[in-house]
Amino acid sequence: MNVINYPLKLGVLLSLLYLILGGAATAFAQTCPSPPTPDSNWIESWSDRFNQTTYTLTAPCKVFVGVPFNITATVTDATHTLTSVAFLWSLEDNGITVAGGGFNWLDVDGAGQWQLTLTQTYTDAPIDHQLNFKFTDLGKGGGAHWWSNTIIGHITVDPFPPLVAAPALLANMKSMRNGQGNPPWAAKRTAMGRSITAPGVQLAVGAP
User: Fold this and answer.
1) Cis amide leading into 35 (omega within 30)
2) Which strands sit side by side in the sheet containing 169-173, from one edge to the other?
């Protein structure tokens, strides 16, 4: 973490005042098909006015109740590596902070990247979710200017997991020779079967 000098502290305080009074929020268009499909993702990004620091959020267009999925937030700045490029960052799901939060710093590594992958599983009612990647960009390329931004993403939630194939039933009829040695009308006829997919089905029907 870099040592914060006094001018930067003053800038942070001014930025906090700006947030309290009401910062700008940016919503981005979706990249999902209509209707959304489980194998498609939306990707939304924002770059500072110097095109140096870029913030990206991606997640599936459609998820299922009880099935885990990933949300990935990525920040890149190849110009200002090993430094703090933003602060006050958080990832929200329907207004609830699921990562980050509080007075924190967002530092990129030696390759100029920061990334967070969060695995979520919805188990409640199948309501659609809105994801927000909130941050305050430090504007490194312009002498520390500040903007408050929100990258907004929408996820459609299906109440049921993906459909699976119906259970297959294998059955065979035992030979009439089961009753060999008895009168023909006493021959036993038995059908035996079992399911090859869960949940198991077992069948045994016999007639004397």
Assistant:
1) yes
2) 169-173, 189-195, 202-207
Report how far Cα 17 is from the mean position of its chain's Cα atoms.
33
For the chain, give every domain's residue range: 6-158, 169-207
Once rounded to an integer, what is the mean pLDDT over residues 2-22?
44
What is the distance between the alpha carbons of residues 61 and 30, in angstroms, rounded to a whole number?
Answer: 9
What local confidence, expressed as pLDDT, does residue 165 receive? 52
Looking at the DSSP assignment, which residues form a beta bridge with residue 43? 58
Question: 56-76, pLDDT tens digit by residue?
Answer: 999 999 999 999 999 999 999
Average pLDDT, the chain: 75
Tokens for 154? 């929408």
- Long-range (24+ apart) CB contacts under 8 A made by 36-39 are 36/61, 36/62, 36/156, 37/61, 37/62, 38/62, 38/63, 38/64, 38/158, 38/162
- The pTM is what? 0.67
Alpha-carbon span 157 to 63, nearest angstrom = 5
Q: How far apart are CA 154 and CA 142, in angstroms?
A: 32
Going by pLDDT thresholds of 50, 70 and 90, the confidence category of residue 146 is: low
CA 131 vs CA 27, 30, 39, 121, 174: distances in Å: 11, 12, 18, 14, 59
Q: Is the peptide bond before 199 cis (omega within 30 degrees of 0)?
A: yes
Q: What's the CATH code, domain 6-158?
A: 2.60.40.10
